[in-house]
Amino acid sequence: MKSQEGMTIIVKTVTRISVWLIFVYGIYIIFHGHLTPGGGFGGGVIIALGFLNVFLAYGKEYIKKWLNIGLLHDLEATSAILFVGIGIIGIAMTGGFLANFLSKGTLFRLFSAGTIPLLNILIGAKVGVALFLVVWSLSLFHIDEGGEQ
Amino acid sequence: MPIETWLIFILGFMIVGSIMALEIKDLLSSIIAIGIVGLALSVAFLFLQAPDLAIVQFLFEIFAIIILILAFLKKEYHKKDDPSNTNKILTLVTVITLGAILFFSIDVFKALPAFGEPYMNTAKYYLENGATETGSANLVSAIILDYRAYDTLGEVTVLFTAILGALTIIRIKKKSSGTEEDVV
Amino acid sequence: MILPYFIIIPLLAAFLITLFSREKDYWSITVSTIASATMLVLSIVCFITLKGETFIYNLSGWKIPFTICLVRDSLSCFMIVIIQLISFTSLLFSVNYIRHISSSWKYYSLFMFLVAGMNGVVSTGDIFNLFVFMEIALFAAYALVSYGGKAFEFEAAFKYAVIGSISSTLILVGIGITYSATSSLTLAHIAQVLPQKPDILVWVGVLFLVGFGIKAAIMPFHAWLPDAHSSAPAPISSMLSGVLIKALGIYVLIRLFFNVFGAPPVFMNIFMVLGAASIIIASFLAIGQWDMKRLLAYSSISQIGFILLALGISTKLAILGAVFHIFNHAIFKSLLFYNAGSIEMAIGTRDLREMGNLKSVLPVTYSTSLIGTLSVSGLPPFNGFFSKLIIIVACVQAGYITYATIAIIGSLLTLAYFLKVQRYAFHGDKLFDVSEKSIGGGMKFAMLFLALLCVVTGVLLIPALRQSMLDPIVDTIFNKTEYIKLVLGSL
Amino acid sequence: MILYILCFILLLVGLYGVLTKKDLIKIILSLSIMGYAANLFLILFAYKNDAIFPILSESAVQEAMVDPLPQALVLTSIVIELGITAMLVALAVRLYQKYKTFDITKIRSLSG
């Protein structure tokens, strides 16, 4: 880490390992949304907090290199479009907007409950990206603040 | 201890915490006080058998505090602690009005079903058929993503709009061109 | 079956604009214009093919108490037509106008969210869903009010967001109490159960009246409107004044207090008092304004007062007046805001004292604003005359002579402050070296189109047209219990 | 009953903060207090004595469960509140940039 931004080397090292655990936990929460408490919103925030962890530990410049912010925007919009898309497929298959058109499977299995896990994944991706973008844009604001008046 | 006693304790704590958060002069302390109130709410959700909400409230509270601290705890904001002269008369009138509202609204709470005995006409259907009809063991997920998925579409859109709105509000001035540019 | 598309189309348009945003704004303009035009055509088809019936569309393929339903009756179709009409013209107006502030895909994306939110509010039959879509429209409105990036715009947006958020919280508490008392969220079910519990009804009614009264900017709750509506870019002002306060405020009040609560007399009296207060106080405040857009914003409060007064009288004739005035106000207030926007764009100010003799340099703006002025002041033969006349006649018929007098005074005051606008803005001895070339074709078309509508929509009162167009809407409002039967009957 | 009244008091504390405080940040905090109170109201209405959370499990026998619908509503409401907080924070930061203060009595370029 040649840049002097961010926190100390200890924090950076711990973050480098823990952030992946946070991501895995968030993904776990999202995938088991129809079986256990949690779901897309909870898991999405966990993922956003993981990004935030890296951001606080390593600083802005590292994030800029590590992530493609434009891509994150596209990901957010794409998951929203897919959400509406699943709704439209529901109209085509059963006549109801956002109908659960897939087979329901067996209760208590991971791959069950039709479209619910799919929607959970989309929500998780969207929430995770969107919340990180809020913090990102708020923090960008301080870079060259105070140019006016 | 019965659950009501616990909840009275938690709610009293939340009220005291909120008043403290509003009356404390130091900014960091009041943000942290709000954070504690939010976490107490998350505990209250656990007592009220809503683990989904407890998780989401807990995480969103952390997130809200991070946003507030990142945005407001810059050095320059602490330049001068400017205790704006609080208008005593306004405060008094507000407190009396709110007290009157509280006094007159006690009746409506008497008319509602007592705590712990909801009607649950609609909910009965969800509890009996929810799992078989949607295949989801978590009935809250079944409601938000199947029975009322349209609400969730709205919710996702609300979040999207909020982010887009925040990005629109925060547009950084590029020094070279002098025009407002989109940064992201 | 047609209703979900009024949500799907603007949402998809907004997401696509976000996804494929480019440096130039042609893509966003194309997508949003296509979406808006499609919805305008669909909405007219939707209104004409309805023929006074009611259709229920259950979402997610389940039955209604357990899922959300969309209700397509004459009232909601009528509101949808107004929303699409004003949003389409506003979009055409924006294309040139917004380039002189700062053109960006974000504007068009937020605009589409605004339209989607309002469509969602007027088409839904579920109280919590209404709340969610109301929030979409409001969030977009907060961001759009501050779009210009000036200090006072942020201030207005902050005030709007704080007051709007208070009212949303009150509405949420109201929804909670309603759910606890009725154990249902479908409006028709609530309508069956709630009127049998009068003490809860009063409190829920007060919460909803304050909550949605803030959204509609009725007199004691109006503090946010003059700031927000005057700070926003002109096309957004016309969206906010023209349709947002009606879709989120007046429409919801009609739906809740007439169809769901069954028009309890105590609230009808409150409606009349608040309406009369809004008419008089806002008119006097408007006379004192020198900022053209602030004057128009106060005028909006006053005209909302007319609608509310008519609703409070709640005879059949008065409701006809209210419905017709909703339509007319949307048209002429949007037109007047476009005029203010084109003046601001041409000479760079909104202060009436700095204008003068624009008659010769801005002929299109002048002529359309004259039509708008005559219409809003209630002079024959323009549409505003008929709706105000109906409201005043209904007041007299129902025996409320005082209210009729107030309405007449309010109408005269309206004429007074709009004559002030005409006098200071278009007649005078100042000379401006501007021409109408800076005002683009889209802006001119939007103004001329709405001016034309101001002249011709008086024909809606011809008995044959009235019976097919306006009377079903009045019946929907007037026969309160019919809504319950129609919604629950088609289970 | 007593819980409902306490919760209503929490709502009124938030309302008091919005109406009397002069600091933009305090106003934002008051709005989130009102939000907590509204959310808690809905969940208090949903609670049923001696019932468990509405998630089925493979082993346990079917027990009485609390009302899941208000929980779904509150989930939506929490997200909406986070959205409004983010927007208000953005607006407050921009206002600070323009006026160099968070004091609402000094931010008065508009009247009425």
Q: Specify the oligomeric state.
A: heterotetramer
Instruction: Figure out the total of helices of chain D.
Output: 3
CATH class of chain D: Mainly Alpha
Count of extended strands of chain D: 0
Give the N-terminus to C-terminus distance of chain D in angstroms: 40 Å
CATH topology of chain D: Helix Hairpins
Radius of gyration of chain C: 21 Å
3D architecture notes:
The complex is a heterotetramer of chains A (149), B (184), C (491) and D (112). Chain A has 149 residues and is mainly alpha-helical. Chain A has helices at 9-31, 40-58, 60-66, 69-94, 116-140. The radius of gyration of chain A is 19 Å and the shape is elongated. Chain B has 184 residues and is an all-alpha fold. Chain B has two domains: 1-77, no CATH class; 121-176 and 180-184, no CATH class. In chain B, α2 (27-47) runs antiparallel to α3 and α6 crosses α7 (149-169). The longest helix of chain B has 24 residues, at 88-111. With 491 residues, chain C is mainly α. Chain C has one domain (5-489). In chain C, 75% of the residues lie in helices and 2% in strands. Chain C has helices at 5-19, 26-48, 74-97, 105-123, 127-145, 151-182, 187-193, 198-216, 225-231, 234-260, 265-287, 292-313, 316-347, 358-361, 363-376, 383-397, 401-426, 441-456, 463-478, 482-489, and strands at 55-58, 69-72. The mean pLDDT of chain C is 88. Chain D has a single domain (2-99), classed as Orthogonal Bundle (Helix Hairpins), CATH 1.10.287.3510. Chain D contains three helices and no strands. The model of chain D has no long low-confidence stretch (mean pLDDT 85). Chains B and D meet through α1, α2, α3, α4 and α5 of B and α1, α2 and α3 of D.
Descriptive terms for the model:
heterotetramer; C: mainly alpha; 20 helices; D: 112 residues; mainly alpha; Helix Hairpins; 3 helices; elongated
Q: Which helices and strands, and how do they pair?
A:
The complex is a heterotetramer of chains A (149), B (184), C (491) and D (112).
Chain A: H1 9-31, H2 40-58, H3 60-66, H4 69-94, H5 116-140
Chain C: H1 5-19, H2 26-48, E1 55-58, E2 69-72, H3 74-97, H4 105-123, H5 127-145, H6 151-182, H7 187-193, H8 198-216, H9 225-231, H10 234-260, H11 265-287, H12 292-313, H13 316-347, H14 358-361, H15 363-376, H16 383-397, H17 401-426, H18 441-456, H19 463-478, H20 482-489
Antiparallel strand pairs in C: 1-2
Chain D: H1 2-20, H2 24-46, H3 68-99
Helix pairs in contact in D: 1-2, 2-3
In short:
With about 180 residues, chain B is mainly α. Chain B contains seven helices and no strands. In chain B, α1 runs antiparallel to α2 and α5 packs across α6.
